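pinging the channel bc i need a second pair of eyes. not urgent but kinda urgent?? the chain im working w is below, pasted from the shared doc
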Amino acid sequence: MRRSTFVIRVASVGLVGALVGCSTAAAPTPSVRYTPIPTAVASATPTAEPSVIPAATATPAPNYNELPAPANDAAALATQLAMVEAALRDPNVKDPELAWLGHLQQLDYSRLQDYPEWKDTVLARLPETTRAAVNGSLEAGKQLRLLSGPTPKNLPDWKIVAPAPIDELLGFYKEAEAEFGVPWYYLASIHLVETRMGRIRGLSSAGAQGPMQFMPATWAGYGTGDINSDHDSILAAARYLKAEGAPGNMQKALFAYNHSQAYVNALALYAEVMKADPAEYRGYHGWQVYYPTQDGPVLLAVGWIKE
């Protein structure tokens, strides 16, 4: 196996998830298999939160030529996250800076997942307009952490590719919504959790394929075109969800997609965040693929391939 220069190791401060199926032996086999992708973990060891909250340490201006790094104390993290959330809502911020900010958002959220005692301090220092979105994303991540399994021994047989542009994918979600009635933000949530907006090319541990992770038999019944196409798989997911009760009963439809209540909870939380504030989709689009290994989590950047 060759590990390309696109593999970036980071220090482990807690794994977010492992590549395992979510259904139990007593549950029916899901038609669409979920492979949770861990949210990012931080590259530096944070300082413990003191009993008296200090003023935020200086937050440097973003250096878009370097990998983003989360702040190392609660006050500084609040300042950094407020900057990120404001930038995501600025229509003048475009890629590649936008993608960098989304990655930093992912790292900041993961830092809060790993240091939950910081949460109240950080949320209290955020603008009220962004507090609910941050809290919803943190709760979604908490649900996904319930799906953790054994740490894989090897890196996956994947290729990591660049996602389609933000507006292009949004157009696909809304096309599917117009045709099948499934709200676009649920489709975006599935896309985010399953393959990080289509970044992952390769089979899941259960043999699921494509950006929305269809089992071949399910694709035969609901898919048309190319299973590896974002457009075709997003429409197929909407078609499947409608057949399972969407949009009238999204809980039932999402549970049919994967038989895990934690999975359903996470998707519903991400969807609610985007419904309330569509700008959050701009951040989620920048989230990267992190993979747990016994040596610590690994960032699989665009261009990575296992050989």
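so Residues 109 and 306 are 28 Å apart (CA to CA). and The beta strands are 7-9, 159-160, 200-201, 289-291, 298-300. — does that match what u expected or am i reading it wrong
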